[in-house]
Amino acid sequence: MEHPENDPRYRGLTVNKGVARPPSVNPYLKKRDRSKLRSVKEYVEGILSGDRVLLSQAVTLVESSLPEHQETAQTIIEQCLPHAGNSIRVGITGVPGAGKSTSIDAFGMHLLEKGHKLAVLAIDPSSERSRGSILGDKTRMEKLSVAENAFIRPSPSAGSLGGVARKTRETIVLCEAAGFDSIFVETVGVGQSETAVHSMVDFFLLIQLSGTGDELQGIKRGIMEMADGIVINKADGDNIDKANMARRQLRNALHLYPLQESGWVPEVLTYSGYYKIGIDEVWEMIHRYIDFVKENGYFDRKRKEQAKYWMFESINEQLRNGFYRDPEIAALLAQLEQEVLHDRKSSFTAAREALEKYYGRRR
Ligand code: GDP
Fold it and tell me: Which atom in ligand 1 lies closest to the alpha carbon of residue 95?
């Protein structure tokens, strides 16, 4: 007998019929894994049908630095491009505390009520250091974050400003292909990221505060010059008079600036994002601008210029990445760095040696 212990006369312990041992890995995990790596066709069809999950996953591929993800992302973007471009892109900047998130929530809800679909993206140069961006964070936009027709995505967080900006630029393409007809790109009005945002939007909106007047609140002069519209937030309660005064000052200051290439004279308005006063007027201004530049041809010209700009930006980024990520070059650079530090070689000779090595190998 195979199991003598199962004999009724047996007095010891009995052996039960065993069950198949369950797998040590949850089989559902595998399923989830597979869904992560869909085909380009699935992503593109999903995006074009407005599927947010697939849109989000495609954006994650755009943001990834893995070469195979990048390759898939580029193919998706290429196939989405013919369906992109049909939106109004607005850059929004202002120092921390100016009320960007409150305002984006208010402006955004205003657009959704009119039947638009809105994507809120961000470029935050500080996110690299702080590991994770605050800009574009859903929790800052209470109403939009739960609205059906809004898609909020924080700033990509890895890489150089150029790299981060390029990813946001590509995300715009995907969002437009997914049917979002309004795009906001948010940034902090203190650094170089404004130039990057300016080069991917149709209208650049600067949010200012009234009252302080301290050298335009740390906003660099170049940013003022880029603005197509300046809006003074928090024009509510006791602050209304101060806001109006700031508006007059800013209007006067703008007279000193040369006329913009678009031929548009930037407007200055006051509003309250919190109490939703003057939101309509801000939006009417943006539409006035869009009509004006579509009429005089600047709208298309600028978009073409921007496309050219991003071609060169992408080339620059890839050249830089190719060079600095090359292990042989990295080793050589470490050595050259020491030689420069110890005055054994000039900076220029060292640079030429590294570049010659890199390009020499490729000939
Ligand atoms: P951000 O850092 O530029 O995104 O600014 P927030 O939107 O977080 O706003 C900073 C602070 O200003 C918050 O405490 C807001 O409640 C307040 N705030 C924003 N907009 C207004 C407004 O229109 N009126 C008033 N009184 N306060 C506002």
Answer: 3
On whether the CB atoms of residues 95 and 217 are closer than 8 A, the answer is yes
Domains and CATH numbers, the chain: 36-82 (1.20.5.170), 84-296 (3.40.50.300), 312-360 (no CATH)
Ligand 1 residue neighbourhood (C-beta within 6 Å):
94, 96-102, 233-234, 236, 272-274
Closest protein CA for atom 26 of ligand 1 = 234
Ligand 1 atom with minimal separation from the 239 CA: 26
> Which atom belonging to ligand 1 lies closest to the Cα atom of 233?
23
- pTM score: 0.83
Per-residue pLDDT of 57-110, as tens digits, reads 999 999 988 888 989 999 999 999 999 999 999 999 988 888 999 999 999 999
Q: Which of 143, 190, 274 to mutate to test the pocket of ligand 1 (most atoms within 8 A of CB)?
A: 274
Residue whose CA is at the smallest distance from ligand 1 atom 27: 234
CA of 166 to the centre of ligand 1 (A): 29
CA of 99 to the centre of ligand 1 (A): 4
Instruction: Tell me how far the alpha carbon of residue 270 lies from the centroid of ligand 1, in angstroms.
Output: 14
The residue among 218 and 181 whose pLDDT is bigger is: 181
